[in-house]
Hints:
Blueprint: H1 13-20, H2 25-30, H3 44-47, H4 57-69, E1 73-78, E2 83-87, H5 91-103, H6 106-116, H7 121-140, H8 147-155, H9 163-180, H10 188-199, H11 204-207, E3 220-221, E4 227-229, H12 237-249, H13 263-277, H14 284-298, H15 309-315, H16 317-329, H17 335-373, H18 381-391, H19 400-407, H20 411-423, E5 427-432, E6 435-440, H21 443-450
Antiparallel strand pairs: 1-2, 3-4, 5-6
Helix pairs in contact: 1-4, 5-17, 7-8, 7-9, 7-15, 7-17, 7-18, 9-10, 9-14, 10-14, 12-13, 13-14, 13-17, 15-17, 16-17, 18-20, 19-20
Amino acid sequence: MIKSPPSSLHKDPLAWIAENESQDLQQYFDHASALDTKGRYLHFDELRFRLPKGLNVNVIWSLIKKVRAKQLNAVLHLDEPERLAQYYFTPTMQKAISMTDRHATSASLEYMCSKVGEQKHFEYLLNDLIEDEAISSSQLEGAATTTKVAKDLLKRARKPRTIDEKMIIGNFKMMQFAWQNRHKRLSIELIQEMHQVGVENIDDEKYHPGVFRQTDDVEVADSEGNTVHTPPPAARIDERLEQFVEWVNQDNQDEESNQFMHPLIKAIVMHFVIGFEHPFRDGNGRVARSLFYWFMFKNDYAAFRYIAISVLLKAAPIQYGKSYLYTESDELDLTYFIDYQCKIITRAISEFKLAYETNLKESEAFSRWLWSSGLLSKLSDKQKTIVMVAKNGKSQKFTAVNVKENLGCSYNTARDALNGLVELNLFDKAKEGKEWVFALRPQKDIIQSWE
């Protein structure tokens, strides 16, 4: 459990210091800033452990709150009774916005693809990254399926066998839905449809697909079963979400307006609002993250199709949860949540860039290997793609179905390409159930067969 800020602040902390601890006046002043010396926007829960001994933490917190109050940006009203959610613009947010504008736009994605050229294996890599978000988002919500099994589920397009696998498929469909509906305005119906697409046929009695909760028996608990968030009452969910939808559909990108908000910041706020409002009985986290992506797609940040934030959120679920709790416990100060998400997004974009750069180098090295081995003239373009994907480990097993889906060709073309690789002693194939599954042979065996 976190330590909430004091319920009341010192009305005049400076007067208190002058009267009680004037000898430490400079030390108190050193902490009278919205950020600490390392640029962190600390919550009271963290601040209390980072102060010199002897200083009154409640007085310093009162000083910090006075400084922050003058620099907070109003966002929207939430909760019942209504509270104004606000945020402070931190250096971490500036960095994330810069990274997003430089590396995640549709134009930057087109440039990256052009650098790889005609080698379609980069598209295979991108599809792999789409799967990462669907899998990790489900695992974050409790799906017990391993990443390896989940990858196999999506790549081979097989039917899910368990509830956990249904969650993976649902999340994948939800991400596809967000992309396909990116040109629409947000509406209550769109939010409900997104939920329905993501959770239908998993456990309809538990999820109630596309239906807002009707009762107040829903709560958010931590790993020890402690209630950490009680959503606003169910009675006015539609009204509150209508206000939210109206806010989302407003144009906040006029640089001359005092209401300007970068799409990345707005998308993160949307993520928070759905988690806070908790409009559905279950599956709210998945909808919240999908809406984040939907808004980024809508604002022409197409590379976010391949930037998996849930992979990193899953790696640190406690910090993710704390960012919600810090905001709610400190007068709906959204800074904690936005700042944490921006750290995650900056790392996710960096990993996306690294994957691209690594793929580009491997592509060039593979082309040289094909040329020197004499195989280049024997492989079709599609076979080159399949071998490259297998060689860099992005996919372990191939079927005619998943090659067809990833390369946009007919089933017969995909099947013939795979069988041709077997004939060239590059791949092995084995029957699994009712389908043939193909896999790259060990490198030493390939070399021996071509000596």
